[in-house]
Design brief:
Strands 2-3-1-4 form a four-stranded antiparallel β-sheet. Helix content is 47%, strand content 15%. It has two domains: 96 residues, 2-Layer Sandwich (Alpha-Beta Plaits); 57 residues, no CATH class. The two termini are 14 Å apart. The relative contact order is 0.29. It is of the alpha+beta class.
Length: 170
């Protein structure tokens, strides 16, 4: 199980040095993600993906649940309130629930792809001021070691917490 740690660094050169320190500590580059103000060139830093910048994952999860429930309700209405005089098998409820879940996840993720990640809202002021947000996914057993390494080598960095577990999709 990995934990996501958040560090705010003052500028790109400091973030690049921090990333180098993390690489030397055997944290793979694919587990280090950086985010800056829109339009800020990040140089050699590994930029956060769309899944990390937006609420796509949260939107898809929410759409899956709501669409599935809506589909199940529509299926139940079709089965138990026959409008044309015919009857449909009970499996219709399952099929409409699956269809609703797929459609809900798709539609909701399309809408959420344009919404900034709600987990990163607390970093908005720092990003607007030109700072760099570094998200580091580390094994749970190394959280203290990595925190101490970053804060010791870069006292200008500030840590803003640790997620209990990495989000499912990013």
């Amino acid at each position: 199980m990995r934990r996501r740690m958040y560090f705010v660094l003052p500028d790109v050169p400091t973030a690049e040095q921090t990333m180098n320190d993390l690489l030397l500590a055997r944290i793979e580059e694919r587990h280090i993600h950086c985010l800056g103000r829109r339009g800020t060139p990040l140089g050699s830093l590994h930029e956060a993906s769309v899944l990390q910048k937006t609420d796509v994952a949260h939107g898809a999860e929410l759409g899956l649940v709501i669409g599935g429930l809506g589909g199940a309700l529509v299926g139940a209405a079709i089965v138990f309130v026959p409008l044309l005089g015919g009857s449909l098998p009970l499996v219709t409820v399952l099929l409409t629930a699956l269809g609703g879940a797929v459609f809900g996840a798709w539609a909701s993720s399309m809408i959420a792809s344009s919404t900034p990640n709600s987990r990163l809202a607390m970093f908005g002021k720092d990003l607007d001021e030109g700072r760099i947000l570094m998200m580091v996914d580390v094994p749970a057993s190394r959280v203290d070691e990595i925190r101490d390494l970053v804060l010791k080598r870069h006292p200008e960095a500030t840590q803003h917490g640790i997620e209990p577990a990495i989000p499912a999709f990013p």
